[in-house]
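Before relying on records like the one below, remember that each one covers exactly one chain. Contacts with other chains, cofactors or solvent are not represented anywhere in the record.
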Amino acid sequence: MITLTYQYKLKPNKRQETEINQILDVCRTVYNYALRERKDWLSSRKIEINSCSIITEYIIPADAAYPNYNYQAKNLTIAKKTNPRLKSVSAKSRHENAQVLQQTLKTLDRAFSEMKSLGKGFPRFKKKLRSFVFPAMLKNCLGNSRFKLPQLGWIKIKQSRQYPEGFQAKQARIVRKATGYYLMIIFSSSESVPENPVGKRSLGIDAGIESFVATSTGKLIKSPKFLLLSTAVGANGHSPLQLLQRRLKKKKKESSNWLKLQNKIARLHEKIADARRDWHFKLAHQLCDLTDNIFVEDINFKSWSRGIVRKQSLDSGIGQFINEILPYICWERGKYYAKVDKNYTSQECPKCGQIEKKKLSVCVAFRRNRKHNCSHCNYQENRDVAAASTPIPSREGSKRGG
């Protein structure tokens, strides 16, 4: 099964905008209530049998079941009958979907599952909820510059691209951003698409430190500094983002002026993110024009965001480019995409295959001496270019990515 996600900007009327904000607020209430219920149950089980807290105490019966998704979804169905606020987030007819609040509980349940499996902390309470999901679509919901949603009815959209042919709309998510409301539609098709075959020309790509990526052809591609270049720099040398953040610090929290500045900052961040994503797509197409096969290192970019190059990696969005955008463009254009083992790529000579470890003093001083000097064959090359060239002759059979 193939799934595609298309994003369109919504143009709701006043009634629809009010209903969207109402649904978001009710979903936030349900999320926080369910989270509070789970945390109280877990806190009550931490109390010792022979002692009680002097300040507060969670008194929950010992035989009370853990409030998992099934338990909370059942109680939510019962509460809908008597609570008019919960009942407002429902379908107007039995043929329409009425599972928005259940999807909110599923989101919380996934957060608790990740907390246990990945060792994360407790989910946080939400001051604002930015999105909600319609898990099933209505029949004949696709229209020309409009889309039919449960409870909201026909809603106008800015149809910046045509709907994919041969696909059916299976799910929709409404997202509230600083610049307005957006509709993310998931299209699916039961058709199976064969994997892209291996071509003749190959290109190795290495995520660099001084450059954004380095190619095996010797090209070093530097990333624009999006936080600075996406906004005009003022006469005093500071970007508008810095000036707005300094002004925000002096405002009273939750005041009217504070909220206005927050909205301006959010719009600026959204503009920067759009510029970064646009540059990533253009670069991915340029790389696909050069070759038939693309090989990249299998790197954990989350560790980069916490390491010595965290500022550069977060500003450039290297993880988003390597793991999301480049594989998609390769699939779309019929190019073979694969990830290779990252070990020894910076130590192995791409010409003779000799592995020569770099000294720690050389690795730390990454601003100087970024050259690969092979003592075996005397081959010299930029270290990032040498690392990008290494996987192609020796590791084409490594694990497939994308």
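Confidence is low (pLDDT under 50) at residues 93-97, 232-237, 360-368, 393-402.
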